Amino acid sequence: EREKTLAMVKPDGVLGNYTDEIKRVILESGFNIFKEKISQLDEEQTATFYAEHYSKSFFSSLIKYMTRSESSGEAMEDSVVSVDEKGGGGKGGLVSIGPVLVMVLEKENAVADWRALIGPTDARKAKNTHPHSIRAMCGLDSEKNCVHGSDSLQSAQREISFFFNEMSSG
Ligand code: CMP
Q: Is the minimum distance from the CB of 151 to ligand 1 under 6 angstroms?
């Protein structure tokens, strides 16, 4: 059965110029790129997208990585998910410079096949055990792993809706 899944090239992948190579692998692997767009996530959107990881120790680091939030003033701790601190331009205001490329991929068994193609979450492990995976190609470690893939059909529908405001059925 044809499925849709959400693929994302994270800021390290986009800024490292891996986008063309990743799209080439996607097309060679039989996926149709049904939709695509460049997006810039803010801290709040990233927290919503990754809500299931809210209680994890790496959550605030994940938010910083995905938004590439940088303090424009004096270093401030625990300010990354604070809406109040965004865009003020004043001391401690945050500037986001982390573009992501999001794509809806379409194929038979798209969810599982995209997950297989990107490899394990930890890119260091990917380099050892899945040397031909996308994360082995462009990822760095368990956080900076270059790409994202929906982990289930249900997640795919939620994530596609999050970025494209539509369900993946049909
Ligand atoms: P992703 O597959 O997009 O889903 C959740 C993200 O959290 C994951 O990729 C990584 O970017 C990040 N992540 C997962 N596990 C860890 C970890 N142990 N340490 C730091 N970041 C992680």
A: no
Residue whose CB lies within 8 A of the most ligand 1 atoms, among 9, 58, 155, for a mutation test: 58
90 alpha carbon – ligand 1 mean position (Å) = 31
My answer on whether 105 and 122 are in the same domain is: yes
Sheet containing 32-40: give its strands across. 32-40, 99-108, 2-9, 147-149
> Ligand 1 centre from 91 Cα, in Å?
30
pLDDT tens per residue, range 86-126: 443 444 555 558 899 999 999 999 999 999 999 999 999 99
CA distances from 164 to 104, 150, 161 (A): 9, 14, 5
* pTM above threshold 0.90: no
Domain match, 32 and 79 both: no
Chain centroid, CA 125 distance in Å: 19
Structural domain range at position 113: 1-41+101-164
Q: Are 20 and 31 in a shared domain?
A: yes
Total tally of structural domains belonging to the chain: 2
User: Of all protein residues, whose CA lies closest to atom 4 belonging to ligand 1?
Assistant: 148
**130 annotated active-site:** no
Do 24 and 3 fall within a single domain? yes
Q: What is the ipTM of this complex?
A: 0.97
